[in-house]
Write a structure and sequence with these properties.
With about 325 residues, this protein is of the alpha/beta class. It has 14 helices and ten strands. The protein folds into two domains: about 240 residues, Type I PLP-dependent aspartate aminotransferase-like (Major domain) (Aspartate Aminotransferase, domain 2, 3-Layer(aba) Sandwich), CATH 3.40.640; about 80 residues, Alpha-Beta Complex (Aspartate Aminotransferase, domain 1). The strands form two sheets. A seven-stranded mixed beta sheet has the order 1-7-6-5-4-2-3, with helices on both faces. Helix 9 crosses helix 12. The longest helix is centred in the C-terminal third of the chain and has 20 residues.
C-alpha cells in the first residue's frame, strides 16, 4: 500500500473521460477549442480576469513563472526548503538564465514578513549585490502547512511595498484551499499574488498543470518561453481537456478533500509523533528505524524523512478503507 507520493496516484475518471472526448482532430498547439476556454473558465473560478497557460509539469510551471518576473541578474526570495530550491535541479536558475534564489527561514517551510525582511534588509542597493525582484511561497508548504489569506496578504503587502512580484507554487493548492475553506481568490490575487502554479497532477490529473497569470500582461513573453523551453505540445488539447474536466463540478476540490480526509485519519493515529500540524494531505511523523521497518514489513510504502522521521502522503483515490490499515498499524507501534 503506497503512501510515498501523490504523484504516483492514478488519473481520476473525469480526466480519462475528458481525454477520450478530446481525441478528435482539432487545431494544433494551443489553438484548439479546449485551450481557448481556459482563460474564461479560470477567470470564473477566481472571480477576476486571468490568463492561463497549460504546462506538463509543476517544475515547468514554476520555472516559467519565475522567468516571467525576474531578470537573469535578479534574485527570488524563497524558503530554504522550497521545492524550487531543493527539488527542481536548478530549473528556476536555468529558465531565468541565472537569477539567484535568496534563501529565507521559517517554521514548517512557511515564510513571514519578518523572515523575508531578514533576507531583504541587509541587501545594499548597489551594483555589487543581487537585487531581489520576486518572492515565491508554496501553498500548501513542503511540510503540508496552509498559508491563510491573512498570511498571504501580509506577504503581499510587503511585496508591493518593496516592488517585488509574488509567485505561489501551488502544487498542492487544492489541498490548501480544501483545508482553509476559503475562495481561491482569497488566498491568491486578493492577497497580492501575481502568478500561481496551480497543481493538478498530484490531485487526479495525468499530465497537465495550469500557470495562472493574475497580471495577464505577463503571459505574452511566457508563451514564447514555453515554446523555447520545449513545452508547447503539438496536441495541447489533451492538457487543456484535463484542466477543464477537473474544474467541472469542482472535481479538483472534491479530490483534495478526499486526500486531506485520509491524512487527518493518519494524524489522529500519529498523535504526539507528529512533527507538524496536518493541514493538507501530507503527514510528517517520528518513526524509529525499527518502527519504519515494521510498517514496511506490513507492505506500507513511504519515504524516510531524515533520521527518525517519515513522510506519508495520501492520494485522492485512497479512501477510508484503504487508509484504515495504516492507521491501525501506526496506533499499534
Amino acid at each position: 500500500m503506497r503512501f510515498f507520493s501523490d504523484n504516483a496516484a492514478p488519473a481520476c475518471p473525469e480526466v480519462l473521460a475528458a481525454l477520450n472526448a478530446a481525441n478528435v482532430q482539432d487545431t494544433a498547439y494551443d489553438g484548439d477549442a479546449w485551450s481557448a476556454r481556459l482563460d474564461a473558465r479560470f477567470s470564473e473560478l477566481f472571480g477576476t480576469r486571468v490568463a492561463v497557460l497549460w504546462v506538463p509539469t509543476g517544475t515547468a510551471a514554476n520555472a516559467l513563472a519565475l522567468a516571467s518576473i525576474c531578470p537573469p541578474y535578479g534574485g527570488i526570495v524563497c524558503h530554504r526548503e522550497a521545492h524550487i530550491q531543493v527539488d527542481e535541479a536548478g530549473a528556476p536558475e536555468f529558465y531565468t538564465h541565472g537569477a539567484k534564489l535568496l534563501l529565507a527561514e521559517g517554521e514548517g517551510a512557511k515564510l513571514t514578513p519578518d523572515t523575508l525582511r531578514a533576507v531583504l534588509d541587509p541587501i545594499r542597493k548597489d551594483v555589487h549585490q543581487v537585487q531581489p525582484h520576486a518572492i515565491s511561497i508554496t501553498n500548501a508548504t513542503e511540510y503540508g502547512l496552509a498559508y491563510t489569506p491573512d498570511e498571504v496578504a501580509a506577504i503581499g503587502k510587503l511585496a508591493r511595498k518593496r516592488e517585488l512580484a509574488l509567485h505561489m507554487d501551488g502544487a498542492r493548492f487544492a489541498n490548501a484551499v480544501a483545508f482553509l475553506g476559503c475562495k481561491p481568490a482569497d488566498v491568491t490575487w486578493r492577497a497580492g499574488v501575481d502568478l500561481l502554479s496551480f497543481g493538478f497532477v498530484k490531485n487526479g490529473g495525468m499530465s497537465a498543470e495550469a500557470l495562472i497569470f493574475f497580471r495577464p500582461s505577463l503571459i505574452e513573453t511566457a508563451r514564447i518561453r514555453r515554446k523555447r523551453a520545449g513545452h508547447l505540445q503539438s496536441k495541447g488539447r489533451y492538457l487543456a481537456a484535463q484542466l477543464l474536466a477537473m474544474l467541472d463540478d469542482d472535481v479538483w476540490l472534491q479530490n483534495a478533500r478526499a486526500a486531506n480526509a485520509g491524512a487527518a485519519m493518519l494524524a489522529g493515529a500519529a498523535g504526539e509523533r507528529l512533527l507538524h500540524p496536518v493541514e493538507a494531505n501530507e503527514v510528517f511523523l517520528r518513526l524509529s528505524a525499527e518502527e519504519a521497518a515494521s510498517l514496511r514489513k506490513q507492505a506500507f510504502d513511504f519515504y524516510d524523512w531524515g533520521e527518525g522521521a517519515a513522510r506519508l502522503v495520501v492520494s485522492w483515490d485512497q479512501d477510508a478503507a484503504v487508509v484504515q490499515p495504516l492507521v491501525d498499524a501506526i496506533a499499534a507501534l
